[in-house]
Amino acid sequence: MAITNIAKSLKLRLPRRQKPAAAGGGGTTPPKATTKEEEFRQVFRYLDANDDGRISAEELRAYFVSIGDTVSYEEAGKIIREFSNAEDSLLLTFEEFGRMMELRGDVEEDTLLKQAFEVYEVEKGSGCITPEGLRLVLRRLGDVKSYGECADMIRVFDLDGNGVLDFYEFQKMMT
């Protein structure tokens, strides 16, 4: 997830998310599990250098510099204005920061899904995964399947019945 990557780039130590312990026995209390909101809050506090409860364009620029990227003051302001509820605000509240991080996570997931789709899209730019394309990619990965087996695999997720998977069907399959 995006927040974990940001925390790593900032060298923050986020507590590990843990599953709740089974009821009964043990006698010790398991460490408190962190939530996404707690992780966002920890990164937000780090970025909020002057501790005023808001992230300024300058503070956002400092974050990008810390990860080896450069963003102009104007670009940082544009990012903040895009997520800020206040007109002409160059300050980002925690709630606005949370929305920004949620959106960033969705964008990263979508990008990864598109990259995975492109691996299976043997005829680049065709917009579909064919049984033959699937068979070739699986063979390269060491999983030898027949054309018929690949056609059967596609048929399960082929919503429009055209014998191939488009990106939307691939997305449904992966989620």
Automatic annotation (TrEMBL):
UniProt-listed CDD domains: EFh
Repeat is among the record's keywords: yes
The keyword Iron-sulfur appears for this protein: no
Annotated ranges, domain EF-hand: 35-70, 145-175
Chain spans, region Disordered: 16-35
Tree of life domain: Eukaryota
Keywords, comma-separated and alphabetical: Calcium, Metal-binding, Repeat
GO molecular function, one term: metal ion binding
Name this polypeptide is given: EF-hand domain-containing protein
Organism of derivation: Penstemon smallii
